[in-house]
Amino acid sequence: MLSARAASLRPAIAAAIRTHSTHARTSAPLASAAYVDPARSQEPSVRTTPENISSELRQELESALRVDQAGELAANWIYKGQHDVLGRDPATGPLIQDMWDQEKKHLTVMNKMQTQHRIRPTLLWELARVGGYGLGAVTALMGREAAMACTEAVETVIGEHYDDQLKAFEQLPADHPSVPLLKEVITEFRDDELEHLDIAVENDSQKAPAHALLSTVVGAGCKVAIELCKRF
After folding, report:
1. So what's the pLDDT on residue 41?
2. pTM value surpassing 0.70
């Protein structure tokens, strides 16, 4: 059953939780494969960036990808922190590992997109790493339910964030080869994050002690981090 928090998301995201998980997709190659397939490394879609766009659109693109890269870095370290504590748990360890493996791929792709689109990485890189690990480890020490509640809160915010980006990216020139791929990758990653949210709910995130408070604090922290990474 979906959490009340997930159900409160706008309809497009709630639908994505139910129907667009990576594992439920067809066997067609994922959009992100363009960035990890050496045979496609010279394609314009993975090597070029829109040039003739307004300064406002350029700033939107830069801040979005800077936040995305920092977010995937933090997510990697959240799952590392959780795995260091709960990795030997026969039920929880494999779940965390699977989600962590997806985040590793996300970060690899975001690093390549950051270079492609000539985006300055966040100045808060080290803070994202340390803060992410601390959040993951502390919530895992509180128990598997708290670790899942952390995942639920983080992925709810990130799912909404990616969805907002897709709307903003509609203003980018659709005829530039990088833009359709950019939107497809963001859609893929959004659906992955919402799959993680669904996994957390199915694995007792709402049974965590002080679930509402924990979710509020973690979610608010994520929103603050997003705004800071847009600027720095």
Report:
1. 87
2. yes
Q: Collapsing DSSP states into helix, strand and coil, what is residue 145?
A: helix
84-92 LR contacts (CB < 8 Å, sep 24+)? 84/137, 84/140, 85/136, 85/137, 85/140, 85/141, 85/147, 86/140, 86/144, 86/147, 89/144, 91/144, 92/144, 92/147, 92/203
φ, ψ at 197 (rounded to 5°): -60, -45
Question: What rounded mean pLDDT belongs to the chain?
Answer: 87
**Helices in 28-174 by DSSP H: which ranges?**
44-47, 55-86, 92-116, 125-141, 144-168
Neighbours of 173 (CB within 10 A): 12
Per-residue model confidence as pLDDT tens digits over 66-114: 999 999 999 999 999 999 999 999 989 999 999 999 999 999 999 999 9
* CA-angle at 102, arms to 219 and 220, nearest 5°: 5
- pLDDT tens, residue by residue, 157-189: 998 999 999 999 999 999 999 999 999 999 999
27 pLDDT above the threshold of 70: no
For 97, the token pair is 């590992």
Token readout for 13 is 């995201």
The answer to whether the beta carbons of residues 185 and 32 sit under 8 Å apart is yes
Residue 51: strand, helix, or coil: coil
Q: What is the pLDDT of residue 28?
A: 73
Integer Cα distance of 157 and 194 in angstroms: 10
